[in-house]
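FIELD: query
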Amino acid sequence: MARSLWATRAASYLRINVPCRGFATVLKDLKYADSHEWVRVEGESATVGITDHAQDHLGEVVYVELPEEGSKVEQGASFGAVESVKATSDVNSPVSGKVVEVNKKLSDSPGLVNSSPYEDGWIIKVELEDDSDLPCLMDPERYTKFCEKEDASR
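FIELD: result
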């Protein structure tokens, strides 16, 4: 704590703008996996991306590996990867089904995962096999507590 106060004071003295980032955004209408992917279900369609918490820990995203449209995804299995200046991380599917669309904008603008993880930075759209995967996912309140606990143990 003292170190961060010193850094904030030094930045203030040097007139450097240091954004104060609180806990990451968690949206109320989504479900969350413990591997930090989100899913928005609308009927038999599901949109999938990585959470604000995940992108914040990854840092600047420089590449997103996308699956092929028409490929199958299984809940908990990797379907792609996100590469940042810090690390490369697998992206796991929170639901099972068939990939019906990939976010082609990410090929040219992978930073959308950072700037808009829940809107423009979505990764895939899936036609759900069924909704039996959904009860295994966390609601926003449970995901928030999960992230707080995970961050406290770092």
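FIELD: remark
Confidence is low (pLDDT under 50) at residues 1-22.
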